[in-house]
Amino acid sequence: MKAVANAVGLKQTALRDHFWTPYQELVTGTVLPYQEKILNDEIPEAEKSHALANFRIAAGMEEGEFYGMVFQDSDVAKWLEAAAYSLSVHPDAELERRVDEVISIVEKAQQPDGYLDTYFIIKEPEHRWKNLLEGHELYCMGHMMEAAAAYYEATGKTSLLGVAERMTDQIASVFGEGKRFGIPGHEEVEVGLMRMYAVTGQEKYRDLAAYFVNARGTRPEFYVQERDARDFQVFGMDPNERDYNQTYAPVREQTEARGHAVRAVYLYRAMADVAAALGDESLYRACKVLWNDIVTKKMYVTGAIGACGNLESFSKAYDLPPDRAYAETCAQVGMVFWAKSMLDIEARGEYADVMELCLYNSTISGMQLDGKHFFYVNPLEVNPGFSGEIFGMRHVLPERPGWYQCACCPPNLARMILSLGKYCWSESADTIYAHLMIGQKASLSLADIEVESAYPWEGSVSYKVTPKKDASFTLAIHIPGYVGAKDLNVTCSGERQKPAIKDGYLYLNRTWEAGDEVSLQFPLKVRRLYASARVLAAAGQTALMRGPIVYCFEGVDNGGQLQALALPRSAQIRTVKETEGILKGCVSLAMTGLRDEDEEALYRDEPPACREAALKAIPYCLWGNRGLNQMRVWIREQR
Amino acid sequence: MKAVANAVGLKQTALRDHFWTPYQELVTGTVLPYQEKILNDEIPEAEKSHALANFRIAAGMEEGEFYGMVFQDSDVAKWLEAAAYSLSVHPDAELERRVDEVISIVEKAQQPDGYLDTYFIIKEPEHRWKNLLEGHELYCMGHMMEAAAAYYEATGKTSLLGVAERMTDQIASVFGEGKRFGIPGHEEVEVGLMRMYAVTGQEKYRDLAAYFVNARGTRPEFYVQERDARDFQVFGMDPNERDYNQTYAPVREQTEARGHAVRAVYLYRAMADVAAALGDESLYRACKVLWNDIVTKKMYVTGAIGACGNLESFSKAYDLPPDRAYAETCAQVGMVFWAKSMLDIEARGEYADVMELCLYNSTISGMQLDGKHFFYVNPLEVNPGFSGEIFGMRHVLPERPGWYQCACCPPNLARMILSLGKYCWSESADTIYAHLMIGQKASLSLADIEVESAYPWEGSVSYKVTPKKDASFTLAIHIPGYVGAKDLNVTCSGERQKPAIKDGYLYLNRTWEAGDEVSLQFPLKVRRLYASARVLAAAGQTALMRGPIVYCFEGVDNGGQLQALALPRSAQIRTVKETEGILKGCVSLAMTGLRDEDEEALYRDEPPACREAALKAIPYCLWGNRGLNQMRVWIREQR
Smallest Cβ distance to B532: which of A299, A323, A601? Predict the structure, then answer.
């Protein structure tokens, strides 16, 4: 097996997109500075972070106790990674100075042997590497590796890369073939090692990543051995919870996505990256089986995954309750990352479709437009008074809270949004793959490409190509799965092309001339989605999509009691270009539906009176920006 | 305030009803003997009970340790009570001999000062009366009082009554005005004391019951004081969980049914009984407010209450999820008891309607027709593969398990079914109130009445009246709330009467002649019930009823995937008299509905294909008697 293409560096792209550029500006202008203040405990109304203080204490720069989650270090690492991307897309000498300052603290906190985890350095030095199940050392270090690779790519500076290299050497000195047996409880170090491999080319990092991937789920069981050998008390998961951390079987034998959804997709991404790097067909095959299990049985219509409110985990196939969803922001971010790794192996439209679905819906739904409030959980239905309060839905908040202690999601969103350029392209010796229709200038090996895009509100995208050395290559453009071949109008410098679509990609193979412009036009019809009857909670209901955008109904637009609404199958749905308020620039949907009158009587034997009602649906990603109110994606359909 | 009527003793009635007599025979023939064996640990495949062994150990008759729940004694008490009713309805010298044997063990276990709780006698004698919050001493003793009253009424024997009198004297010596402040964590002793008052006429029992009722929810808070004074560790509820045990306010100020549903309705029944005995208007007013809160906001269409799967409690108003219901059998049994106490105060149809609804649906649904498997939880929807397995529905079992350790529900059902005669009548100096249409011979103070009933399958009931001393009195017959006045045909000895209905009761005031026969005829139409739009989970759906019977759809009759079914609003529903199998004798419903085809694809943009499907609905109380399969009460309605 040979991966079809390589990843493209973030610095090769410069986004200029009417949809995404404002998100990037929100992150660079608000989210990152806000998070930086949080890490420094400078936001009094936010929950105490202490994350940077932990590093300073570990570095001997100040006195104090460790405070925070055992994985508090990862907040700093994820901020560093996002800041690195920020510097890539938006150079800022002052930010770079502050990042260097943080890096110098991190450097000082690192132990002489390369070990770096402030919880264990400060609090339990004697328990280093003795609680891989819940200790999160490898998780935190994995994030630091990702940050190091990103910062090196952004600035060429090797300070943090050096930290990461010493850290990886420390890990490699302890774990691996012929050394200690061990696997991380929360997968992430595998991804970090593969990023280190990508920027340094050192095969030892790739091989250690492969070791961790391949050791997972083997017998005898590591976590059981670890527990039996441990001479101190720990809290957390039972080592026998084999689903939770994906140890129920060796990874190649796993056929179902189970357990903690974020851990799972981080593992699957690493599996794909290792498979690509080593040409490991059986590992890629396992990825495909797991991918298939998720997208055909365990994914919400918004792209969200991990339905179960207990243990943040995948539920059983087809259990996709809209009002009890877990659907953690981080899980969808991980899905985007994994999808891109799959695309680097094989350009298949299904991967790009899922990546797009998550990007435009269930990832960014995690963030308020003020950049200061975030959802951990992304439900498809909230009912104030019940959501967040009733047993079984206490985790489903009807409004985004402020920064919280377990702050994994906000920085994860920040790094995804800022590194979006990386997810737009893959490139091989003779082919450029364009996965997303996002406006930008990209400087690739084969060509410079300028993308103008009216997506996702209109089906209109153009690619202006300026070839570099060899003008003969293929441009492969992902065509979203919902676009019918006969609806697609392709021109190249004004000349109508006959689309040759294979596996969701339009292949244009020609000798390019500077200024050649490929233009795609396709209608964005409003689609009604229907779930399989096996999805209990969606029976008799429909969800609305247009392009990649999933819509939802909010109380503020529809007068409350959304459960009393129905949409006739025959109802025409009109698109409305919004011109004001938080919806400005986006397309909302207007339609005439039906509303059951509210009756106070708990039960009666007369059917409820019903009247016509003007209904409005807005993009799901924007819900919850206009105060506390009801929301639902699925609406009853009246045939 | 004066209660309208007195209760009627069980021995005054002899049921001979085509619906209920088989249930009584099932209980006398199977449930009670089976439970007796369980209490004696003679059923190897059942969970160990040890309940009688605990009494023998406490009595010094054998060596051993206490085993079981802290309230294990109540299993013996409830069995004794049910056995007493059994002897009332079906004399059996051999059973009576065995009951006397058990009573003699109970007598021996009782301490010289009257105290009787085997857990504390055997295990923690030093903690007697020190953990009223969770210790369940008063709960267990309350049940023993009910048993004692029942056995005395059944046999005239005073053995157990003596135990109960010494027990109540012990309680009265410790608690009450001018003595120790205290209230039971699980209400029940109040009811037990009121039963003692009923059979002995001793006001001290009534007054102690009133003390416990009135002390509840007062400040300073008893449970907090108790905890602060306690010098040992206990497990269980936080005393600050004031909703859980109905201490959030003094009982007269409580306006919402909150907390543990069984505890709540036991309290409310006691409040009604105390209100009736003392003519306490404010207490009855509080009962009415709480009644209203439940029946207008917190009751399932089956009559079930206590929707919340956490802490077996009432949920918020209108939160009535069919698939996550708790709806404990005991809570509905308690609702029947409370309804009867309310009826003894005021003959209002709404009380009798709810009593009937619970009796014919959500109480007996708790028992398999083999008499050996029982539901604790009575959901309105089960989906095998999800119910009992998914987070938030682990408590919702799709099949009745065998006897279980916390065996409160089976004996509660047994005593309700055997004492049903008591719930049929109230009587005042000049009026007989007939609450239920159950075939029987009743020997009341004013008259003997022979009831012939085709209910609940047909709307046809007759009352043959033989007056006693004074032939001039009123017969007041409850007319179910769903019967329209114009649909009711009443004859008295063949002569058409003009129905005079007030508050749900038909009042027939005349001078009766021996053999006068009142005959009621009314059509039992199939009704479609609709829930308020505020009940999120029932929006767009309908439930079927005929007479007092709620219907449900089971997979075995309807080909599975019940969520894919819809019932057109225009569909005719036919009644079918069943002649075979477990449904024999009952009326099922047949109709032509619609079924969405199963599609494997998780999502698609074509509406599901739909075809006509023959549907069958069976009485809800009979579900789960034909193997593991799907069930639902609410079905999507197609307009």
Answer: A601
pTM of the model: 0.95
User: SS3 breakdown of chain B: % helix, strand, coil, rounded to 5?
Assistant: 40, 20, 40
- The one-letter amino acid code at B507 reads Y
The tally of domains found in chain A comes to: 3
Q: Are A541 and A532 in contact (CB under 8 A)?
A: no
Q: Which residue does chain B place closest to A313, by CA atoms?
A: B391
- With CB atoms and an 8 Å threshold, state whether A536 touches B386: yes
Contacts of B608 in chain A (CB under 8 A): 530, 533
Which residues 597-636 of B have a C-beta within 8 angstroms of A? 597-608, 610, 636
ipTM score assigned to the predicted complex: 0.94
Cα A20 from Cα A13, distance rounded (Å): 13
Q: Is residue A238 part of a domain?
A: no
Averaged pLDDT for residues B36-48: 88
Contacts by residues A45-51 (CB-CB < 8 Å, ≥ 24 positions apart): A45/A402, A46/A402, A46/A403, A47/A402, A47/A403, A47/A404, A47/A405, A48/A405, A49/A75, A49/A403, A49/A405, A49/A407, A51/A75, A51/A76
DSSP assignment letter at B609: P
Residues A418, A291 share a domain: yes
- Of the residues A36, A146, A226, A312, which is catalytic? A312
Q: What is the side-by-side order of every strand in the sheet holding B440-443? A: B13-15, B440-443, B447-453, B460-467, B516-521, B489-492, B495-497
* Cis amide linkage into residue B456, ω under 30° from 0: yes
Instruction: Kindly write down the DSSP assignment for every residue of A37-62, as one continuous string.
Output: HHHTT--TTSPP--HHHHHHHHTTSS
Residues A553 and A514 in one domain: no
Please answer yes or no on whether A540 and B309 come within 8 Å at the CB atom: no
Q: Tokens representing A356? A: 């797009």
For residue B438, the enclosing domain spans: 426-521
> What whole-number percentage of chain B has pLDDT above 70?
99
Report the distance separating Cα A510 and Cα A438, nearest Å.
23
Residue A350 lies in a domain: yes
Q: What is the pLDDT of residues B391-446, one digit of tens each?
A: 999 999 999 988 666 677 888 999 999 999 999 999 999 999 999 999 999 999 99
User: Model confidence over B257-304: pLDDT tens digits?
Assistant: 999 999 999 999 999 999 999 999 999 999 999 999 999 999 999 999
Return d(Cα B343, Cα B6) in angstroms, integer. 9
Is the model's pLDDT at A514 over the cut of 90?
A: yes
A295, B602: Cβ pair inside 8 Å?
yes
pLDDT of residue B406: 62
Give the whole-angstrom CA distance, residue B624 versus residue B400: 7
B294 and B386 fall within a common domain: yes
Do B362 and B486 fall within a single domain?
Answer: no
The pairs formed by B495-504 with CB atoms below 8 angstroms and a separation of 24 or more are B503/B346, B503/B347, B503/B348, B503/B349, B504/B347, B504/B348, B504/B349, B504/B350, B504/B352, B504/B353, B504/B478, B504/B479, B504/B480
Same domain for B377 and B481, yes or no, is no
Residues A567 and A516 in one domain: no
Q: Which of A602, A612, A639 to mutate to test the interface with B (most CBs of B within 10 A)?
A: A602
Q: Does A525 touch chain B (CB under 8 A)?
A: no
Question: Which of B478, B494, B521 corresponds to the end of one domain?
Answer: B521
For residues A583 and A618, is the Cβ–Cβ distance under 8 A?
A: yes
Does residue B329 sit in the same domain as residue B391?
yes
Chain B residue with CA closest to A598: the answer is B533
Select from A381, A405, A423 the last residue of a domain: A423
b/e string for B270-291 if b means 16 or more Cβ within 10 A?
A: bbbbbbbbbebeebbebbbebb
Residue A457, in any domain of the structure: yes
Residue B56 in domain: no
Pair A402, A445 in one domain: no
Length of chain B: 639
